[in-house]
Structures are given as C-alpha cells and as structure tokens.
Design goal:
Elements: H1 13-18, H2 33-51, H3 58-74, H4 95-107, H5 113-118, H6 123-127, H7 133-140, E1 141-142, E2 145-146, H8 157-168, H9 172-189, H10 193-203, H11 214-232
Antiparallel strand pairs: 1-2
Length: about 240
C-alpha cells in the first residue's frame, strides 16, 4: 500500500488560528467543553463573520481539527511537523477526543442574538480583520517612525507609504484594495487615537512606538493607495463586450 503524503504544516493553519488562545508555555486545551466554548466564542464569531468576506469557514477548520486529531493518534508526542503550535489537551492522552469535540462544535455552531451582542470583542477576534496590517505595521513602523529600511530613518510618513506602494507594484490591484479596506476598518472600529495606539502598538501587533498619529495615518494610507490605483492601474476592470 502506498503511504499517503505527510500532512503539511500550512494545511492546519485554520486549526492553529482557532486554538491560539491555548498555545504557549503552560497552556493547554481544557477538558470541560463549557470552558473552551466560552474561551473560543469570540474567535468563532470572528471567523463566522469573516466567511462573508471569503475567509476560512468553520467547516474547513473543523476538517483541519479532525486531521490534527488523527495525527495526534499516530504521533501522541506531537512530533509530527504539522502539529507544531497545535496545543494538546490538559490530559494529553485525550487530545484527539477534545479536538474532535471542538470540530463537532464548529460544524453545529449556532449563535443567539443576546450572546453575540453582549460578548465583548477581543483582541484575537479583531486581529482577524487585519491580516495585511498584521504583516505591514510591524515592519512599517520603527521605534522612531518610518523604518522600512536603514535608508529610511529620516523619511516622512508619506515617504514610507510611497515606498510600500512602490514595493507592491505591479501587483497593486490584488494587494492595495484590501489595504484600503483595512485602513477604513481601523477608522470604523477604533474611535480615537488612544484605542488605535493600544491595539496596533501594544496588544495586537506591536506595530509602532506609540507616538504615531494613526487617526491621520490610516486615511492618508488609504488615499495614497487609491490615488496610485487610479493613476497607474486604470481601469482595473472593463465589462465584457457582447
């Protein structure tokens, strides 16, 4: 019999994302379903909300969890490469069972209006809305401002934005619209500079020194992306001629 190809590390990215609250030194997945359900609720809500924007689905992640469960049965010590950063249960021997319970919970997940509206947004849930900023901001902002490269230490914010756009070109039609969307998501979700600093500089992304003016930066970043698309990539789409 031909042995199936080993599971790739990247193929369990969704499971890794969901279980991140239980990953790390001294942490593990609780055995009590009520405990892990409460802890995972905001992330599940965020993933469900993201399905409308083409993100991962709960069903896809459930499939990944079952694959991880099978791998833990084959490699109880978690030594398979694909299982890196997939946390075990408090009782490691029950990890496959717990992962399958979570998978079943995802597939049958239903929300009630009261719980949805009264459960606060968490940092983990909000990070799901900024997949590009999660990569861009820690590189873009240094301790003293724009720090895309050593040659940019004295650059202005606009210089940094132009460099980012230049480095993205010519793939801008596939990248910049989503950057624009994340800029305005930030403006819509965080209503003042204090909230933006706390989220983007400390709790979520460590994306700056805390001295940036995000209230001005995000609209400026969005506008420069839009201007570039209109000037260099117009028209982005043309209707099919019949």
């Amino acid at each position: 019999m031909t042995r199936p190809e080993p599971v790739q590390w990247s193929s369990l990215a969704g499971a890794r994302l969901l279980l991140e609250p239980f990953d790390g030194w001294g942490r593990s997945i609780p055995l009590d379903p009520a405990v892990w359900q409460e802890r995972l609720y905001p992330l599940i809500r965020g993933i469900k909300n993201g399905e409308h924007d083409g993100g991962r689905t709960l069903t896809e992640i459930a499939t990944e969890l079952r694959i991880a469960a099978d791998l833990f049965e084959e490699f109880p010590d978690g030594s398979a490469d694909a299982l890196r950063r997939i946390p075990c249960a408090v009782d490691a021997s029950r990890t496959p069972q717990v992962l399958r319970e979570i998978a079943e919970h995802l597939e049958g997940w239903r929300h009630d209006r009261h719980t949805w509206l009264t459960t606060p947004l968490t940092t983990e849930e909000l990070r799901l809305r900024f997949p590009r900023f999660d990569q861009i901001l820690p590189i873009f902002w240094g301790q003293d401002g724009v720090a895309i490269s050593d040659d940019m230490q004295g650059a202005t914010t606009e210089d940094g934005i132009r460099m980012y756009i230049d480095e993205t070109h010519p793939y801008c039609p596939w990248e910049l619209p989503s950057v624009v969307a994340e800029c305005y998501q930030a403006v819509a979700l965080f209503h003042d500079e204090e909230q933006m600093d706390r989220f983007f500089c400390r709790e979520a992304m460590t994306g700056g020194s805390g001295t940036e003016d995000f209230v001005d930066f995000f609209p400026l970043f969005a506008q420069r992306c839009i201007e570039h698309l209109r000037a260099e990539h117009h028209p982005l789409w043309e209707p099919t001629k019949r």
